[in-house]
Each structure stands twice: as C-alpha cells, then as structure tokens.
Design the sequence.
C-alpha cells in the first residue's frame, strides 16, 4: 500500500503541496470570489423580495383607493339625497303658500261678489217697495177715490211685504 | 500487496516526483512536485476556472453563473441548516473544502488512462485527507475556545447528566470528540482507496481472463467488465457523497463549537 509504504518520503511533499493548493483555494477562491458570488445571489433575492413587497404595497394602496372611492361615493349619494329631500320639502311649502294665497284671493272675490249681489238685491227690494206703493195708491184711488198719502201707502206695502 | 498477474491494483496510489523535482526541499523537508501535487494543482485550477465563470454578477444569471451560485447556495443552506445564521461566515471555508475534495475525487476518476496518462486521486492518501481533517478540527477547536473559553468543555457533559456520571461521561465524550479528525480523514481516504482498488482488481480480471483464454474472457472478463460499468457509476456517486459528508460533518462540528449543545 503506497500510502503507508511511501509515507516517510512523501508526507512532507504531500502536506506542503496540499497546504499550498488548498491555501490558494481558500484565500483566492473561498475568501476572494465566493463572497462576491454570494452577494450577487443575495442581491437578487433581495430584489425579488423587494419587488414582491412593492407589488403587495401597490395592491394595498389600490384596495385603499377603492375603499376611499366607495366611501366618497356613499357620502355624495347621501348628500344628494339630503338636498333632494330638502328641495322637495321647500317645493311643497312653496306650493302650499301659493295655494293659500290663491284661496284667500278667491275667498275675497267671492265675498265681494256676494256683497254686490246683496246690494243689488237690496236695491231691487227698495225699487219693488216704491213700485208697490205707487201701485197700491193707484188701486186705492181707483177703488175708493181717496187719494192715499205716499207714506201711508209705503207703510202698508212694507207691512204687507213683511207679512210675506 | 496483492498482485493479480502483472497488474498491481495498488500501483495507482504510488507517488512519483515529476519534472525532476525529486530533491526539492525546504528546511530539510522534501517537497518534490509529485503526481499527487499535480492533481492538487489541477483541482485548484479547475475550481478557479469554475468559479471565475460565475463571476459575471448578472442579475439574471446565465447557466454557468447559475451553476456556481447553486453550489455556493448549497453550502450556505447546509451551514444554515446545521449551524444557523452564525454559520454564514464559514461559507468560504466549507465551500473551498467541499469543492476541492469533490474535484479531487472526480478528477481522479477521469478515464485519462485511455490517452496514456495516469490519473491520481490525492484524496486516497491519508496524508492529504489528514491535513484537511486536522484543518477542520483546528477550526472547531479555535472557534470553540475563542467563543466559549473553558466553558467549551461543557460540550463533553450533556444536559441532565446525573452527578455520578459526569466524570465518566466527560472522558467518553472527550474520546469521541478527539476521534473526530481521524474518522473525518480516514473515511474519505478509505472510501476513495476501496473504490479505486475494486475498479483496478476488476480491470485486472478482465485483462488476465482475456489473456488466459477466449472462453474465460467472454465469461469472467465480460461479467467483470459489466460490473465495472456499474461500479464506475457508483464511484462517481461516492465521490460526490464523500465530499458532501466531509463538508456536512465539518459543519456539524462547527455547530458544536458555535452553539455548544
């Protein structure tokens, strides 16, 4: 077995060259290059997680914006409904007032007309009295030949009209 | 060692100095550039090329960058699963360890013999795996004592131990702790050695039986060859699994040092 048979002649050369080559591997490759390779991989991982986080944040912001939009939508709907109700109430009040004014106007006109009708009726009644008194004097004069006084005739007509 | 005809299944593990560097030395210690060292350099260079291909640092990665980032991500999740968030600072070490062992195992399995080269798996040498194991173990010790001081010894006394059992348990746990670097290094060495020996023994069967007679070659040789195909696939799996086990156990031990129990 050369590993054992040659150990006396070769151990120092083996150890020397192994330390030399492994030293090169460790210091130049292990310490010099591997951290850079690892840093590249880490940077990539960081970039991927960063991008994913950014996407998640953007999602959250979109959700927020939607919620905000919904809230404002509901708010403006409520405002519009409120002003609509207010307008309805105002319109109802206005038409009520106009109706009341028109009612008062109509009532006034009816009153005036009634007063005019009453006046006309009174005037007509007065005329009927005069005419009736004249007729009564004529009838008295023709039947009895007595000239009845105007006052007497008028009183008699009034009494007759009052008894109906 | 077992010889099967002229084919020595252990010869693949022989270390040979290359390029006439037999007597290169530092302070009396021989540091010849061997075939083993060549494969260590090859593993380091291939790993460097692999990681350089993933350094484009694009936000949308290409295939190569994706592969490199997959490997670092794999080590990262391994450490996070075993050690927690504090395990991230060990990514460079465990990544180096895992990829270096993985490439060593896989490069040693390349069928370079077809073009006349001799593939060599330095992870089949406990001198190499031992150094890696001791390195991992030293990190565990250093981190453990640096973070917890002498309190690190409480690792050897599990929670809820009856007072009477504290002393015996302490020694049992201490032994199991001290065995770790050996089990770590030997596991890799044994798995690699066994697989390669098995492949070479079967290859010896194919060649020797075919040389003996056509009848033997068509029966024993063909059966061995078919078996070799399956075992080669298994060896690729073992190469990956052993590298993974080494990295996994290292991170489990680092967890002990980081978080105690």
Sequence:
């Amino acid at each position: 077995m050369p590993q054992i048979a040659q150990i006396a002649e070769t151990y120092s050369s083996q150890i020397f060259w192994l330390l030399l080559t492994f030293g090169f591997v460790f210091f130049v490759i292990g310490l010099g290059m591997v951290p850079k390779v690892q840093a590249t991989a880490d940077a990539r991982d960081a970039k991927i997680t960063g991008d994913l986080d950014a996407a998640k944040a953007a999602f959250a912001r979109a959700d927020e914006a939607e919620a905000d939009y919904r809230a404002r939508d509901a708010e403006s709907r409520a405002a519009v409904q409120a002003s609509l109700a207010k307008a309805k109430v105002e319109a109802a009040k206005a038409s009520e007032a106009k109706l009341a004014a028109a009612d008062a106007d109509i009532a006034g006109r009816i009153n005036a007309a009634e007063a005019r009708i009453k006046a006309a009726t009174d005037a007509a009644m007065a005329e009927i009295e005069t005419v009736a008194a004249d007729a009564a004097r004529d009838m008295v004069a023709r039947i009895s030949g007595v000239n009845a006084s105007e006052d007497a005739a008028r009183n008699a007509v009034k009494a007759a009209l009052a008894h109906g | 060692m077992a010889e099967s005809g002229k084919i020595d299944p252990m010869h693949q593990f022989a270390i040979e100095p290359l390029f006439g560097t037999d007597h290169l030395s530092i302070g009396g210690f021989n540091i010849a550039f061997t075939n083993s060292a060549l494969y260590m350099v090859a593993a380091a260079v291939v790993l460097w090329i692999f990681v350089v291909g993933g350094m484009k640092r694009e936000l949308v990665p290409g295939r190569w960058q994706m592969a490199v980032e997959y490997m670092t991500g794999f080590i990262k999740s391994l450490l996070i699963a075993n050690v927690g968030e504090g395990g991230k600072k060990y990514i460079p070490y465990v990544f180096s360890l895992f990829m270096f062992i993985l490439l060593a195992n896989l490069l040693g399995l390349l069928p370079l013999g077809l073009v006349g080269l001799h593939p060599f798996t330095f992870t089949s040498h406990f001198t190499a795996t031992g150094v890696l194991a001791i390195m991992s173990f030293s990190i565990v010790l250093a981190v453990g004592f640096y973070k917890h001081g002498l309190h690190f010894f409480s690792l050897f006394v599990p929670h809820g131990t009856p007072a009477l059992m504290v002393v015996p348990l302490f020694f049992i746990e201490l032994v199991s702790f001290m065995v770790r670097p050996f089990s770590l290094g030997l596991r890799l060495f044994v798995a690699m050695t066994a697989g390669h020996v098995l492949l070479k023994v079967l290859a010896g069967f194919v060649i020797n039986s075919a040389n003996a007679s056509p009848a033997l070659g068509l029966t024993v040789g063909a059966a061995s060859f078919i078996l070799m195909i399956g075992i080669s696939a298994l060896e690729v799996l073992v190469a990956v699994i052993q590298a993974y086990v080494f990295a996994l156990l290292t991170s489990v031990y680092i967890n002990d040092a980081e978080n105690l129990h």
